[in-house]
Amino acid sequence: MHGCGSCECSGDPGINDAIVNSKVEAVCGGGSSRGRRQRPGEDVVHPLKVSLEDLFTGTTKKLSLSRNVICLKCTGKVSKSGVSMKCSGCQGTGMKVSIIRHLGPSMRQQMQHPCNECKGTGETINDKYRCPQCKGEKVVQEKKVLEVVVEKGMQHGQKITFPGEADEAPDTVTGDIVFVLEQKDRPKFKRKGEYLFYEHTLSLTKALCGFRFVLTHLDGRQLLIKYSNQFKAIDDEGMSIYQRPFMKGKMYIYFTVEFADSFNPDQVKALEAILPPKPSMALTVVFSFVPWVEFEVEFC
Ligand SMILES: [Zn+2]
Ligand SMILES: [Zn+2]
């Protein structure tokens, strides 16, 4: 929350303080030369799909958006000359009341709705004064290309904000465009913070006879990996770390060995002849006795 006593605008935790302060100033009239109260505009939130590769190496995405901007010809005043009149349909209130039904001699049910003649603005304009550019809509559509910089190491769900780039409207502090990163699933690789997990399946023969394979990393580099027991940890080959461009976490490679469903007796004999002997199956049970200790508890 900010310290403005004259309005009910509240701080938005998702936006940095500087932006909130500029909004608050404008909402409270502090930054407005016209001295009119301005209401805060809506933020526009877009999901932005990115691959794990994008988050590993960083990327820039160009996105074309169309948005409303204040009509430059009439600067949002509807008419060429700035002449507008109170709407006769609603007497300038912007709202109309219609009676739905009579419930009794002195009771009736009524409903309030925005005035259809002035679209709830309370103003109408004579056709001959109407702005030819925006047809009295106060705003026109504009196409804009935004360059979204996805930095190395950013995360699924992280927000990238373009302050004041949402739809413009008269007497409104323009909201922000917010992109929320959505990481697409990636076969083989899983990411957890700064760690990367990679799963590799190999046959029993390869596991027994020694094995190497080429792992193509997220940036296209090829790493020669030698099979070792169950999993392998490699320093500095994990995920890029956000805002530390030269640092990476660990990569963990998990090996899954595919065992054969069954062996025939001859194969079992042959394997037993070359493999280390099986451990004996004798069951050892260890009993342990915990001595009983009594505590004296003092109550204060
Ligand atoms: Zn009206
Ligand atoms: Zn206009």
Automatic annotation (TrEMBL):
InterPro entries xrefs: DnaJ_C, DNJA1/2-like, HSP40/DnaJ_pept-bd, HSP_DnaJ_Cys-rich_dom, HSP_DnaJ_Cys-rich_dom_sf
SUPFAM superfamilies noted in UniProt: DnaJ/Hsp40 cysteine-rich domain (SSF57938), HSP40/DnaJ peptide-binding domain (SSF49493)
CR-type ZnF: 58-143
Keywords from the named record: Metal-binding, Repeat, Zinc, Zinc-finger
Annotated Pfam families: DnaJ_C (PF01556), DnaJ_CXXCXGXG (PF00684)
Start and end residues of each CR-type domain: 58-143
GO molecular function per UniProt: Hsp70 protein binding; unfolded protein binding; zinc ion binding
Coiled-coil annotated residue ranges, if any: none
GO-annotated biological processes: protein folding
Record has Zinc as a keyword: yes
CDD domains: DnaJ_C, DnaJ_zf
Protein name in the entry: CR-type domain-containing protein
